[in-house]
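Limitations

Structures in this collection are predictions, not experimental determinations, and the ligand pose is part of the prediction. Treat each record accordingly. The example that follows, with pyridoxal-5'-phosphate as the small molecule, is included so readers can see exactly what is and is not provided: the inputs are given verbatim, and the output is the predicted complex.
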Amino acid sequence: MITINENYLKLNASYLFSEIAKRVASFQKSNPSKEIIKFGIGDVTRALPKVCIEAFHKATDEMASEASFHGYGDEQGYAFLREKIAQWDYQAHGADISADEVFVSDGAKCDTGNFQELFSQTLSIALPDPVYPVYVDTNVMAGRTGEFTQGRYGGLTYLECNRDNGFVPKVPETKVDCVYLCFPNNPTGAVITRDQLTQWVDYARRNKALLLYDAAYVAFIRDPKLPLSIFEIPGARDVAVEFRSYSKTAGFTGTRCAYTVIPKSCIAYDAKGNGHALHKLWHRRHTTKFNGVCYMVQRAAEAIYSEEGQRQVTETIDYYLRNANLIRKELSALGFSCTGGENAPYVWVDAQTDSWKFFDMLLEKAGVVCTPGAGFGKCGEGFVRMSAFNSYENVRKGLERLGKALQR
Ligand code: PLP
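Predicted complex:
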């Protein structure tokens, strides 16, 4: 008899975005002429930068001739991309990372989800609440949690993020082995300061813990005082892994390219307390289960590492940041307390009521879709996430409708 991994049965009933899609579809069915404006799912709307398209075409043409054709490449990515990443994204910002510490992949979702495979079953894990659901669900699937009761899985340490701590989790008093952090944050749009990140690195060093640092939204950081990478913090090389993605940086959500940085000095331990380089373990995992990102896609990603490439990427991110600023400004003017939207594409809004109720009300009254904060964890209850990934015109129109619907 074929039997299942019963941990899947523990998973909280409905994945957030499918529930939203269900409610939107049902609304659209009963209101077929109503135009819906989405501030919901975090997918980008602007086209790929021109430099990427040009590189894509050129690389595609290379595939047409045997002399320049590319078959299987190194699973970890082509040297041309890994070297640019190390130089432009790390060394240029004072972070000591070399090209062979970079693993190119097809997404930060896969990498943040798969990375836990390297760890023991008994690992103690801390994650922020609210949180990007992938970190939680993949640990549930792997059997590292208890049942889901009262909005939380047994066995996990939830780091509460709320207005009191500015949505940046405090270092726990207790000892945990692995901590997921994400800055700029999805869903709250909060950012972490150098001092706060240093406290986390110090905590990890004291406790022989590991920090899994998701920087998928790093391109939105505009405040020069904020750290771009955890590897700008002294000592982080021994206790942190960083995930980045071209999805939001360069509009690659449908093109698929990301990377994970694992310094060679980053160690995890076996049951006897002997240290093992995570780089070596992930290398083994990556080369066994993954066959590399398509050559053309890697060439397209490489194209952002030029003066013109950076200019084009910055222009697109600035466009979204203008949307985010407008969302924050208008909602604040309506009397809602907001976080994020300054160095992040997300604005986290205190809905002052149940978050699904607020979601339904906005959909019914304004034809506007937001993301209910409750879908990101218990501490997200009472909040909604508004995303800046839309056209400026739609954002303005949506906010106007929202203003009318919410006038009190
Ligand atoms: N990490 C966070 C925090 C995200 O919000 C997302 C996407 O929304 C991802 C990772 C996924 O990135 P990718 O498109 O590279 O899989």
